[in-house]
Amino acid sequence: MTRLRSSSPYWLPLALGLLALVGCGRDQQSAKPAAQAIPAAVITVAATDVPYEAEFVGETESSQEVEIRARVEGFLESIEYREGSIVNKGDVLFQMDSKPFVAALDAAKSELQAQQARLATASANLKRVGPLAAEDALSQKDLDDAQGSRDAAVAAVEGAKSRVQQAEINLSYTTIRSPLHGATSFARKQPGSFIAPGPDSLLTYVSALDPMRVNFSISENEQLRFTKLMNEKKVRRPEDGKYTVKVVLADGTVVPAPGRVTFGDASFNKETGTFLVRAEIPNKDGTLRPGQFVRVLLGGATWNGAIELPQRAVMQGPQGNFVWVVDAESKAQFRPVTGGPLTGERWLISEGIKAGERVVVDGGMKLAPGVTVKPLEPGEATAPPASASPSPAPAKG
User: Fold this and answer.
1) What is the pLDDT of residue 234?
2) Where in the chain is CATH 1.10.287.470?
3) Where do runs of H (alpha helix) occur along 79-219?
4) 98-173 is a CATH 1.10.287.470 domain
5) What is the reported pTM?
6) What pLDDT, on a 0 to 100 scale, did the predictor assign at position 266?
């Protein structure tokens, strides 16, 4: 059987076609345009002195809280104040039954009158005996007895006066008044109750509201960190040595009147590793009440040559905070940073950025290391340009 052979390989046309396609693809790749620069808002970082502000959790406390207690025994007759209200100094809070004390005062006054009558008699007797004794008409003993009787009458009068005064004081104690201007607590005793001085004599509390104390604690680590910053000249104390205090309520309201630090404990608490700091803040409108938990902003110190960035410039990555820095060739560079205190919408950067460097504040989500950046001013439009020509509308059949 005879086999026929082709004059040319059958695969040659197919191979030539594939080579043509590969060459066309290489030409298209070589003709691909270079990547365009990504627009982003950029600022040049400058070092400035920035107020140092540390934040703590504090609890408010009355600057003067007084226990209202009974000082004499008797029956409580009435409650003269509205529980929980604000009272002035001298306002009546409770009224005890005063009738026994009025009677005691009347008896003391009667005794005083009797002793004063005895004193008058003794004084008149001494006045008669004196001249007679001088003429030897009476003995010296009679003169001494008359003088002793008068002296005893004088002492008895003084004793009667003190008993009258004590009776007047006891009577005044039956009307229980507020010793200060402040907010009252609820009444611990009700009318008709028998009360007496002692452990069970508490009637209520009155707490002064202006000024208000704020207690907060500083940990040992925070104290050591602050001391290190001062030793490194990164932070300086206030010139007058007085730190200021601002109080922020639970809803974010800032108490307008600033306070001042009035007390700092000399030693650390062994159980918590913190030491107590106390501040006083004006509270004329009564916004603060004892027992509130508040945020305490401690200021007065200053960061020397600090770097501040808008909060939106600092981004969060798997390894922590970072920013995009634009180098001299307008390339984006990844830069880890260490953030300090956050004040408003600005974040203090303690490590990672130097003065004079350019940092991206808007548009950083589109960047990658080495990408070319088109620097724009903050607030300048960064929207991508529109397409060169609109796509043709489909033909209607």
Assistant:
1) 84
2) 98-173
3) 99-134, 140-173
4) yes
5) 0.65
6) 84
